Amino acid sequence: MRIDVITLFPEFIESCAGIGVVGRAQERGLLEVVTCNPRDFATDNHRTVDGRPFGGGPGMLMTIAPLRDALDRVRQASTEPARVIYLSPQGARLTQEKVVELARMDRVILLCGRYEGVDERVLENLVDEELSIGDYVLSGGELAAAIVIDAIGRLQDGALNDAQSAEQDSFAGGLLDCPHYTRPVSDDLGEVPEVLLSGDHAMIRRWRRKQALGRTWLRRPDLLTRVELDAESRTLLDEFRRDYRAAEN
Ligand code: ADE
């Protein structure tokens, strides 16, 4: 997969995409992250890429021409059609479902805004989709783009060392993840739940499922309304609720 990022801060994206799982995915040839700076397409001596908003108001906007030229250049890099995504708080909320959808594509172009954003005509005509990473405002789209790249990059086949770990992710089944423990078994901070030491894999799977359901119920009940629970899961969740209420009393 190839991800192009149109950004005034290419070094930031390159350093984020060069480390950890995503860096390794690039080294393994599973993913290519390529940056393009709209400033390279500015035509004046000051390399201007921004303009005042018509109608007044604070701040500056990114102008059309350098973004259009950058997009044209990036598109030319391959014949593969690419989805153009603009990162902004006005976008649809990024979810794991959307991440999985994007991870399956051959090409994505991420457009990062700075200043107060970009001229609306860019969004209307050159952008396919707008995505937000949450209900807060960042000073630019780069951090959001880095998040999208990380989430997509780790899902590329062969990026994670343990093939199971993407399947076990939080949200992978629409639920939060269960708790995890490592050495030591006993510590001032507490004990590892006995079932995890039992070697009984069916019991361990059941316990993990119950914890994942219970945590989702406690912390993100909104997620539970969106998943279809099978009979076993409903039983496990009932058990969790009963245990929880008993512990409360
Ligand atoms: N740019 C600025 N804020 C953002 C947000 N919340 N999500 C995506 N891009 C952004």
Quick tags:
about 250 residues, alpha/beta, Alpha/beta knot, Trp Operon Repressor, Chain A, 2 domains, 5-stranded parallel β-sheet, two-stranded antiparallel sheet, 9 strands, elongated, binds adenine
Within CATH, the superfamily of the largest domain carries the name SPOUT methyltransferase, trefoil knot domain
CATH topology of the largest domain: Alpha/beta knot
Q: How many structural domains can be distinguished in the coordinates?
A: 2
In the CATH scheme, the class of the largest domain would be Alpha Beta
Q: Note the gap between the termini.
A: 53 Å
Radius of gyration: 23 Å
Low-confidence stretches: none
The dominant shape is elongated
Number of continuous helical runs: 9
Descriptive notes:
- With 249 residues, the chain is of the alpha/beta class.
- The chain folds into 2 domains: 2-153, Alpha/beta knot; 170-248, tRNA(m1g37)methyltransferase, domain 2 (Trp Operon Repressor, Chain A, Orthogonal Bundle).
- It contains 9 helices and 9 strands.
- It has helices at residues 10-17, 20-27, 64-76, 96-103, 120-126, 142-153, 201-219, 221-224, 231-248; strands at residues 2-6, 32-36, 50-51, 61-62, 83-93, 107-112, 129-132, 186-187, 190-191.
- It has a 5-stranded parallel β-sheet with strand order 2-1-6-5-7, sandwiched between helices. It has a two-stranded antiparallel ribbon with strand order 3-4. It has a two-stranded antiparallel ribbon with strand order 8-9.
- α1 (10-17) runs parallel beside α6 (142-153), α4 (96-103) crosses α6 (142-153) and α7 (201-219) packs across α9.
- The longest helix is centred in the C-terminal third of the chain and has 19 residues, at 201-219.
- The mean pLDDT is 96.
- Residues 87-89, 132-134, 136-138, 141, 144 line the site of adenine.
